[in-house]
Amino acid sequence: MDKKRDVIIIGAGISGMSAAKLLHEQGLKVLVLEAKDRVGGRTYTFRDPTYEYADMGAQYIGPTQNRILRMTKDLGIEHYKVHGKGIGVMELDGSTYKIENEKPNVTSVMKVLDLNHLQNAIDEAGEKIHLDAPWESENAKYLDNISISDWFRKTLWTTTGRELGRMVVNILMGQDPDNISALFFLWYIKSGQGFRRMTKTEHGAKERRVVGGTQQVSEKIAATLDKGVLLNSPIVSVEDSTTEVTVTTRDGIQYKADHVIIAFPIILQSKISFSPPLPEGKQQMIKLIEDKIKRFTGIKTILFYKRPFWRDKGYSGEIISGESLVKASMDDTKPDGSSPALIAIVDGKSRQTLDIDGRHRKICEHFAKHLDSEEAMHPITIVEYDFIEDEYTANCANVLPPGALTKYGRYLRSAHGNVYFAGTETATQWAGYMDGAVQAGERAAREILHAIGRIGEDEIWQDEPESKDVPAVPLDALLVERALPSVCGLVKIVGGVAVVVVAVVLVSKYRNEISKALKL
């Protein structure tokens, strides 16, 4: 094999493969090196005749995710709307609530105001954050030096509101909110078009799934690269001599290229020896992430049933909880109604307390309780993927701890000589999602095209037209949601009214004395 290429891409996930596709189409010789025995990265599709396919990694796409929508269309991959009809369930702060029209039936006025304020406050804070350089935003240092838990405590009044905030962070990122920068979280939500877009099913981030599984995106691109993808090739070193870059695998095999793209999670980049060394700031960022951020420990389990019994009872299959073994669940039935299934995102701490059979039994009991059916106890097939066992996955969505973004954020995507950086965490839109992976990969590819004189600098970052097939519906807060005060605002209003009432009473009682005093 000719080991010299124009570009070597390290990492065959959607970001690396998006870069490879663009560069290949521009006529460059590309080689993709992948540590795993498969392409796809954080997209991983199990295939079996009994259930056809099951996505064990990233799986949802939705409106405003225009890059991944364009990519799937270009590759001839279809998608469908997930089943979202019916009643959902939310366990929060010791209580269980039904969710109808994506709103929990909370009756306490204070809790309603706090939950509403949580959405508004996150989006309002996001308006002041720069997507491309959040470290330059107003109040950036303050927000970066506190955790998102601290921000919830300062912003919300009720335990329910704070616990919902923590639960959202845990479900979206698989991390303890105490370890995540408030600035990073607020930026992350803004990159996904706001709280409502990111957390909703209808018109939101969970609206659609890919027919046949999301791993197809990388597989179909790989098929066009003329055997330009090598699996089982973990990299140990990258040496940039300024005239060419030498990449060495664990087996001692060397490949050379004019340029290299690193397209795998930041937290794993310390596994590679760089020469010259990465900038001190980049090294410090990686070390801080390694010290403060745990690998995603959740277990994704899919339970297949004879029939979608939950639909018959009027349930959507969505259950979210901050208190149970199962943190989140969704209906995962195929679009034609075949292979009825429920997804369970399971707390990884259960590894220490339950064997696999005990864990599966607890999941079934969870579904039986909240979906009001004994049928939940009898799945016909269970498949699961334990992320902690994959040394090259690290996290579903890499996150930054307090202090990292303002100190080191500028190193997230900055090139290092002839070495460029992709990966969904380097995106400015839908960071952490497949759409962000496409943006980051194509941006890194265009940086190289600019470096070799193919395009101008102003062409590196490109806006994506809205998908004509999946147009976005505005999800701005309703008038009543904007008009509702926060709990703090209500206290001020009540306090102000009380002052006026007292004043009116006193004026009425002492009207004559006040009149005499005024005459004096």
Question: Gist?
Answer:
The protein has three domains: 4-49 and 59-78 and 211-279 and 414-459, FAD/NAD(P)-binding domain; 81-207 and 296-389, Polyamine Oxidase, Chain A, domain 2, CATH 3.90.660.10; 485-519.
Describe, in plain words, how this protein is organized in 3D.
- The structure is a single chain.
- This protein has 520 residues and is α/β, with parallel strands linked by helices.
- Helix content is 35%, strand content 19%.
- Helix 5 (148-155) packs antiparallel against helix 6.
- It starts with a strand and ends with a helix.
Rg calc: 26 Å
Strand content: 15-25%
Tally of DSSP β-strands: 21
CATH architecture assignment of the largest domain: Alpha-Beta Complex
Mean pLDDT: 90
Uncertain segments are 496-507
Question: Structural class per helix/strand content?
Answer: alpha/beta
Per the principal axes of the C-alpha atoms, what is the gross shape?
Answer: globular
Largest sheet: 8 strands, mixed
Tell me the name of the CATH class of the largest domain: Alpha Beta
Number of helices: 17
Question: What's the CATH topology label of the largest domain?
Answer: Polyamine Oxidase, Chain A, domain 2
Overall number of domains: 3
Q: Tell me the helix content.
A: 25-40%
CA-to-CA gap between the ends?
Answer: 105 Å
